[in-house]
Design a protein that fits this description.
This protein is globular. The chain has helices at 160-168, 173-176, 214-219, 288-317, 332-350; strands spanning 19-24, 33-37, 40-46, 52-56, 70-72, 75-77, 84-85, 91-93, 108-109, 111-114, 117-121, 147-150, 154-156, 192-196, 201-210, 227-237, 240-249, 255-269, 272-281. Helix content is 19%, strand content 32%. The strands form four sheets. Strands 12, 13, 14, 15, 16, 17, 18 and 19 form an eight-stranded antiparallel sheet that branches. It binds FE2/S2 (inorganic) cluster (FES) and fe (ii) ion. Residues 166, 172, 176-177, 301, 305 line the site of fe (ii) ion.
Amino acid sequence: MTSPSYPLTVEQPYPRNQWWVAAYSGEVGRNLLARDILGERVLLYRTEAGEAVALSGICPHRAFPLDKGRLVGDHVQCGYHGFTYGADGGCVLVPSQTSVPQNSALRCYPVIERGDLVWIWTGQVELADLTLIPDVGAVGLGNPAWASEQHPVCEVAARYTLLIENLLDLSHVSFIHATTIPGGEKVAQIPVDVVETDRSLTVQRKGENLPLNPLLKMQFPQQRGPVHQHFDAEYIGPAMIRTGGAVFDAVSGHLLGINNFLHMITPTSPTTLRYFVITTRNFGLDNPALGQINLGMGTRIQPEDSAAITAIEQVFQSTVTLPREISARVDNGALKVRRRLEAQIRAEQVA
Ligand code: FES
Ligand SMILES: [Fe+2]
């Protein structure tokens, strides 16, 4: 069987000193929600004052899953023998005695809400740095000048790096999504540039003088002539990748609008992931049909990608010998991302 961190050449499969998306804000409320994140069971809920809380989700008494307990005010009461924990994780009550045992606190994870997402820090608490959260406003989240749609959360039986690599090599669009992404059949032929900054890496394709397809006609009803359209894949970090991009009038170069697909990826275990998608656009805000189109596209695209990477994960999980990996020029960006991710993981191991 292939190593759980393959294709990374480090032992630890994912960075821990990292903000990941635990849930959409709307999923966290006054009920107990359990989510596996980086192989840990996490319990999510909101205090009476509305603050999101993330605690370890297994009772240290006899390992009862705490989401099967109940909330008493801001406290979590285990459903088995009633041990009760505060929102900071501290054990406040053991019903059968007057004191609480030592080392009985639940782990309390730093959480913060940005762009209607609950971000969780899975590493050392003292290193939780808010400036490491992606600039969600820049990509249209929580920004009144943009419309956005949340797509259903899905669980995928594949390691998170497979989804990162899937998104960074959009030449697959011409094959996997040939019928689901309008104009997709041409994407593989557009030349690729890789643009790097210290915060992100973008695999950029600039389609030029593309004829208006039915989707573009709906998105930009005033547009008559051909367009330049960007098909970006921007690695903003392991937790977030942006695809899509800007559309320009081909004659004047005038920007018509930007349509983003934001992909939030959270490893649930070394070989499984949770996948959140949000679409954002800064045009046609008065036309909800465009949001419905984005949602509909997501509904068709997501299973196509999930099926592809699940099939690869099954190869990794089997006992067959893998062929020696080859890469094409188009994989340049994805390979650089592997190196970034490995460097991030190595850095925290040294620290
Ligand atoms: S297992 Fe939770 S109180 Fe016993
Ligand atoms: Fe895809």
